[in-house]
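Standup notes
- HV: blocked on the assembly model, inputs below
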Amino acid sequence: MSKLYEFQSKKLLKEGGIRVPAGDVASSPAEVREIAQRIGKPVVLKIQVWLTGRAGLGGIQFAETSEEAEDAASKMFGMKVKNFVIDKILVEEKLKIKSEYFAGLVIDDSKKSPLLIFSSAGGTGIEEIARSHPENVSQISIDVLTGLREYEARNLIRKTGISGKLLLQLSDVLTKFYKVARHYDARSAEMNPLVLTEDNLVYAADCHLTIDDYAVFRHPELGIEVAREFDRPPTLLEKIAYQVEEKDYRGTFYFFQMAEEVSKDEKLIGFHGAGGGGSMMSMDAVLARGFKLANFCDTSGNPSASKVYRASKIILSQPDIRGYFASGSGVASQEQYHSARGMVKAFHEEKLSIPGVIRLGGNFEEKAIEILGNYLKDIPAKVEGYGRRDSPEFCAQRLEELIKENQSACYEVKSVVDPALPPNCYFFETLTGKLAIDHEKCPDCGTKGCIEACKAEVLKLEDGKPVLSVSPEEAKKGKCTECLACEIFCTFHEQDAIFIHLPIPGLKEYREKIIKKNKA
Amino acid sequence: MMAILVNEKSRVVVQGITGREGMVRTRLMKDYGTCVVAGVTPGKGGGEIHGVPVFDSVEEARESAGQIDISVIFVPAFLVKNAALEAIDAGVKLLVLVPDRVPIFDVLEIIRLARDRGARFVGPNTLGLVSPGKAVLGMIGGRAERAKEWFRPGDIGVSSRSGGMTSAISYYLTEEGLGQSTIVHVGGDAILGLSHPEIMELFEKDGETRMVVMFGEIGTTQEERVADLIETGKFTKPLIAFIGGKAAKSGTRFSHAGAIVEGSRGSYESKVKRLKEVGVHVADSVSDIPKIAKKLKNEKGG
């Protein structure tokens, strides 16, 4: 779920006709001062983070003058609060509050409809209030086809003991609130507190919207960078990974880092799961052995070999991991050799120096395990392949043994080296990369096995050399499935004449940064 | 022999039959024995895919190909709502929404129309379902010969929130000589057409199913609601459950409102506690599931 900051959420409420305090967001103390001057009244400064209970964290300060505001802000910027470094502060007029309410919208999985909750007592500790004073709280399931009707909102609020003009004001706010949430495909939305000021006006004093990741494409205006559930801003490596996912529709690729500041922990490993449930089960198995995960990763839904390759390269951009663990459900419906080939290419390029345990159970697992066994003999580390009859628990134990054998050596991140392709080689573009063939080597090839390896049948022989059998446009559109079979065959059985370049934008710079940091 | 939701007689339409997945899966479903009678891709009516006639709309498919019981949908996520509403409007009573990443409000709208029309659906984000030896819907099992080897007819129902684990659990049961009545991947999303509790109610009514295995996960209230069903006597068959995500960070909270509605429901501890309270056999590891099933079966005298 993609969280919006308070200032973004309030902007949407305001556009939807709900009153919010006058103010603006600032990125520096000087800006804070300007905004406070413009407001010309006592202000409140609020750090912009995806956390509740900011007041208790020192994230909410009051100021009488713009000088005071600037002063306070200079202490707030740069503050570290949980996973956030404060770089934005919302400056708003300080409201004279008479009473506080709560309104929240969730999607209720049991009733399978949006559910709106209203409480006539709001503010901090709302969950506790709801438990101890149920008479203050009421809820309503909303029909998605009709939306929230004014009389429904009125009945909802009435049940909490509110009447008169306030009842009408609040029902108006709630119907508008649902409209905003619905329009922006909010997975959840909350105004806490919703307040009544001394001059009898209702304001959304705080608001948080969370947008449905699957509907983010409908709202480019929100500028959501990474449509994923995070409780902190995404890391650089996560952004790189998300770009990979965005540019390749084949299968799904999730990546997030569990340990931001990677320590020299003995039990730190890179994790590569396949499928939600299988990943979770595999994660449980390694965690039960005391391992710590540098990251969580899931490539599933029939991903291309190239996507799995990129996932591996991203996992192997994390320093100090001691092992590589890949495991899914164990009985996957998809052909498992695609993942095997993706990993073989990545491990080779990285000259993998830490052990790997790869559990690729499912359709054609025998072939997948054979690929791992045949083509990873000459890298420094030991990589073992397992199938559906080998439990995640057993595989986790194998990894532990292999790491011990490897004397718990730490992984060192290597520079990304751009491939040196021969100047006149034959090449064509693929969906996400480029396939190059050094035709000068082809006369020494006895098997022409690349042609047979190409199950998508995009290669044919011409004068004893492999060339495209379809148009370059078709190859680029996805006819070449980037299965990596031709490259792997040519590299290990023949002339090493085929290379598929699958760039990962930003990874080169990222790794240089990591390497530099580790040297320091 | 019975099963739930699908059998060899169910007449199936594939929406999005000319797409990358639609084409491949149509062949695999047919190879398995599923009665695929028509395909739909707007604008491509008149052709044929693996011997299945293609139509421009579900309505046209019904007019030409006759009765349609089930639609399996393989269209891009943003088109799923339209395809599903079309099928429901044409009178189809069971839908399988395979695609991942369907916007949640689209799902809610489909649910709403389905309720009005007495239709049901599995998914979204589902690998599908299979009644072993009868028919498969969606992409579960991959190639037909593999699906036939992994899943065998029998009397254990399987309901799972994870696609891969649906196959894995069923395969491990088969290895132990325990067949399955119907295997359902309910889908990986928070809001589903048929979630665990609804599947349990169907298994309860199915004469062939004598025991059920459920793969649950942290998040949502599905497993707690299954416990509620057992408590109120609406589900009475032996149930073996596994809950994934023990070591994951305890249930992500959407909001205060979420906490008010769900209380502590959704967490690993809550699910295991509730299920154990009502007598469900909760397995600590997936590999224990076939052992428990075997033991229960022997106790009941096979």
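- HV (later): unblocked. Chain A touches chain B through 68 residues (CB under 8 Å). Chain A has a mean pLDDT of 92.
- Next: hand off to the docking folks.
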